[in-house]
TrEMBL record:
Keyword match Phosphoprotein: yes
Organism: Nocardioides dubius
Modified residues annotated as 4-aspartylphosphate in this record: D53
Classification via SMART domains: REC, Trans_reg_C
Keyword Translocase: no
Residue ranges constituting the OmpR/PhoB-type domain according to the UniProt record: 132-231
Protein name listed in UniProt: Response regulator transcription factor
Residue span, Response regulatory domain: 4-118
DNA-binding region: 132-231
Stretches that traverse the bilayer: none
Record's keyword terms, sorted: DNA-binding, Phosphoprotein, Two-component regulatory system
């Protein structure tokens, strides 16, 4: 199945070559020029990757990113923007973006980051209504690495690509501490030079999702070292 890329960009001079390049790479591409139109398209549950400009005519792109995550969109998000300050970059990642490219950017670099993000996310579409897992005990947290899915009992937990990767690393050695350095190096690749606050924001979102789902496990902090995933009830 072709990966579905949604481009939310109001500048025709940027959007047109971007769409042509993506289509040449055999992606299915849909482009809109306004944030609300992008959110409406995401709501249909067809998108694997969102390329999102921040300077939109109706909504700030950061608000679009935040609302997309709050509505359950679990696909990849790459922010495209002329705002290249570290603060804007950190804020964008903290509200749920997976990557950030400052304009002007090369199409070759964007394609490389697109391929990398789709590989990490498995290229799976954003979830429609959640389906039930195979019968599992109600009091279980299960991270299916092969399918890139998280289950709490029989309910699937929606997670972004980065959230899944962090939880999968913690789950692989449940009960043991995983250092901040390992999490950053393994989840954010060698090209990552951003603030470590992005890891803290990702951990914060995971903690909230696990708590709201009633998961029998929680992420605790080993101060000055890293994080561990601990069972909170007897399995």
């Amino acid at each position: 199945m072709l990966a579905h890329v949604l481009v939310v960009e109001d500048d025709d001079k940027i959007a047109a070559p971007l769409v042509r390049t993506l289509e040449r790479e055999d992606y299915e591409v849909h482009r809109v020029a306004e944030g609300q139109a992008g959110l409406d398209h995401l709501a249909r549950g067809e998108v694997d990757l969102l390329l999102l400009d921040l300077g939109l005519p109706d909504l700030d792109g950061l608000d679009v990113c935040r609302r997309a995550r709050e509505s359950g969109f679990a696909g990849g998000i790459i922010i495209l923007t002329a705002r290249d300050g570290e603060l804007d970059r950190v804020v964008g990642l903290d509200v749920g973006a997976d990557d950030y490219l400052a304009k002007p950017f090369s199409l070759a670099e964007l394609l490389a980051r697109t391929r990398a993000l789709l590989r990490r996310s498995g290229g799976s579409p954003s979830p429609a209504p959640r389906e039930s897992a195979p019968a599992t005990p109600a009091n279980t947290l299960r991270v299916d690495v092969a399918a890139r899915r998280i289950w709490v009992g029989e309910v699937e937990l929606a997670a972004t690509s980065k959230e899944f990767d962090v939880l999968a690393l913690l789950d692989a050695t449940r009960g043991a501490v995983v250092s901040r350095e390992q999490l950053i190096n393994d989840v954010w690749d060698e090209n990552w030079y951003g603030s470590t606050k992005t890891l803290d924001a990702t951990i914060g979102r995971l903690r909230q999702k696990l708590d709201e789902a009633g998961a029998p496990a929680a992420i605790t902090t080993a101060r000055g070292v890293g994080f561990r995933l601990e069972n909170t009830t007897d399995a």
